[in-house]
Structures are given as structure tokens and as C-alpha cells.
Amino acid sequence: MYSVEYLPSARVDILEAEIYLFEHSPPAADKFAEAIEKQTDLLAEHPMMYPLYKEDERFRLMPLPYEYLGFYRVDETAETLTVHRVIREMRDIPNIL
Fold it and tell me: What are the sequence ranges of the domains in the chain?
């Protein structure tokens, strides 16, 4: 099983997404938080399950609700998965990464 780490940038992204979603629909914010937790558990078992991001193949794409994507990297030697960012699909992702 891989360990999963979130960089501070990803933690800020998640917090901002949850605040935004909560302002519009508290149940949506709950669903988003639950999806993050579920994906973390799933990726710890299967870190390569999602595709590489075609624009920057250093990252893999983790789908999330409400058009958000998680961008993560896998270190097979250390058996660690690091989430770098959680970004809404409509944003300028290549420039953010």
C-alpha cells in the first residue's frame, strides 16, 4: 500500500473548493470531501489506475466531482503518491501546474 501525501498547494485548493461548494450547496461540499477521502483510499491501493495528464506527463489525473481534477505523482521506489493540485477543469491548468 502506498502512502498518500498532499502538498500545501493541494490542501489550499481543496479548502477553497469546499468553501466555494459550501456557499452554493452544503451537500455538494460534503460530497466533494467524501470523494477526496474515497479517492485517497483507492489510490493508496492502486496508484497507477488513472491516466497520465497529456499536457504534462509528470502528473496523473484523479477525477473528482463538480468538474475538479486532482493532479498527482507516483514515486514507485518510495511507494508514495503525492497530490500536487486540485483544480477545476475550466481553469488554465497548464499555467497553474
Answer: 3-90
